[in-house]
Amino acid sequence: MRRAFRLLLQRTISSIPVLLIVVIGTFFLLEAASGDAVDAYLASIGGGDAALIAGLRASYGLDQSVWSRLWLYISSLARFELGWSVTFGRPIGQVVLERLPNTLWLMGSATALSFGVGSLLGVVAGAKPGSLRDRALSTASLALYAIPSFWLGLVLSVVFGVQLRWFPTSGVETIASGKEGLDRALDIARHLVLPVSALGMIYLALFLRTMRAAMAEVWRQDFALAASAKGLSRTRIVWRHIARNALLPLLTMLGVQVAGMLGGSVVIESVFAIPGFGRLAQEAVAGRDAPLLMGIIVVSAILVIVVNLLVDIAYALLDPRVGASEASA
Amino acid sequence: MTLLTRLIRSPEGLAGLIILVILALTALLAPLFFPRDPLAIVGQPLLTPFTDLALPLGTDRLGRNVLAGLMHGARASLAVGIAAAIVAVLVGTVIGTLAGFAGGLIDEALMRVVDAFQIVPGFLLALAFVSVVGASLPVVILAIALGAWTAPARLARAEVLSIRERDYVAASRVIGMHPLEIALKEVLPNALPPVLALSAVIVAGAVLTEAALSFLGLGDPNIVTWGSMIAEGRTVLRSSPYLSIIPGLALVVTVLGVYLFGEGLSEALARRRSRA
């Protein structure tokens, strides 16, 4: 546990400069935008006089120099303040916190589904490398991997939502249904089935392939040979020895894929009209809300860092060889 | 045995190559078959596929030829996918090689930049970039490359680090070759093949990202893309689902072709490496 704590501290400190690069980079990217939030706001209300414009600019700090604004932004971030959203007329932190849970549910469920089913199928494929079963599963996973998630979402909603009417095709829960407790949970679950399937399918294929490849790697190691020399049954070797040792690379994969999944949820949330974090990004783009867009990018970077940290710690706890030398140094 | 024959001998490589050749032909021949703007109105709207021989895949909500859109869309998808991947691999290789060679503080700084780009979801970055600069083909290409150059950078750096310790590099150093000459003649040619094998995955990712951007309405509005066709069809998804399904299938086949080709390529490269 001590080792995990040190790892946590070390990674947190080392991610500060990286986060700083993200903030500065984002700042200058959005700085390059023609027209700022005040322009967008004025366009939406049909223009205003010079005094109003100057007043608005001053209140958003847009009349100051680039450097002082960058400093203002970084120092307010350090106080966990993300600024003011023009489109929503509220603090960005508030808006983001409202939207984040929906996305975390979506991503969490998609990860659980793809990790569970993907690694299981990976074991089935990797139990006998080169067999017909292996080749069939590997080819199927490649095909699955090629399907764009937003298109899969549309197809699923046509088939299971419109034609069969099994699942709702939009939102996270039935609006004003008055459901509570278990009923409400079931309602939310029903709403999540299609988007989670659409988002998780690609990662299912990815986990399947990683598991399969990792198992092929483990088969070649001495202890696998030793296990079969001991006369253990094949099933036992596969589950107790091969699959268990092949699980670790999947964990790493989990961390690598968070950023991708967060990006994928932008489109999935748009397809299924889920009021989440990704949808917020699209709304920020549509509203030319640069501060909001910046806040979204910074928060997503922090999210990716946190998930990677958790993966690292899980990894260190599962495999005592990892991080031992780093942490003791 | 050349790389091509090696590639063709693996079933994945052959299948991928066939798909890609067909796609390339489709893209090249699109203006011959359909010299008119694919965004032009040619018939009655929402014509079901396979009912009119002149319009085999039917028409969309505005009466535009779906087949023409599909073929012209292949041009856009392939062009953007390949161009973005070239930019990403080029930038990534240069930065990765530089970091691997320079070492020390430069390496450290460059890798932190790579880290920074990796923790920001590439799609969000592309979204922000396009919305800031304005949607046009070059901007979309740059936006996609922005999120895709880190993987080749990491790989190139790792390859350079491992190769520069090998005996033949030490030998060239001993005979007094210039460091730049060693870099370009000895290290880079050996570090490139794995990066090239990776580029298939990058092309596939770029094609998908372009489609997703166009789907959200952030692609170049003046050209037909499969993503924009899917988005167009979405408005009549309940009554005419084929309008979204057809371009989506084209996307799946394209990406699958690129993946298969990539698998075959990396297998062929691995076999050549193990023999060398």
Notes on the protein architecture:
The complex is a heterodimer of chains A (329) and B (276). Chain A is mainly alpha-helical and 329 residues long. Chain A contains 13 helices and two strands, in the order ααααββααααααααα. Chain A has helices spanning 2-31, 37-45, 50-59, 66-78, 92-126, 132-145, 149-163, 181-219, 222-229, 234-271, 277-286, 290-318, 324-328; strands spanning 84-85, 90-91. Chain A has a two-stranded antiparallel sheet. In chain A, β1 (84-85) and β2 (90-91) form a beta hairpin. The two termini of chain A are 16 Å apart. Mean pLDDT of chain A is 82; it is low at 324-329. Chain B is mainly α and 276 residues long. Chain B is built from eleven helices and no strands. Chain B has helices at 3-9, 11-33, 66-102, 104-119, 122-133, 137-148, 150-163, 167-174, 179-215, 226-234, 242-275. In chain B, α2 (11-33) crosses α11 and α6 packs across α9 (179-215). The radius of gyration of chain B is 22 Å and the shape is elongated. Chain B starts with a helix and ends with a helix. Chain A binds chain B through residues 17-19, 21-22, 25-26, 29-30, 32-34, 142-143, 145-148, 150-151, 154-155, 157-158, 162, 259-260, 262-264, 266-267, 270, 281-282, 285, 288, 290, 293, 296-297, 300-301, 304-305, 308, and chain B through 112-113, 115-116, 118-125, 127-129, 131-134, 204, 208, 211-212, 215-216, 218, 230, 234, 237-238, 241, 244-245, 248, 251-253, 255-256, 259-260, 263.
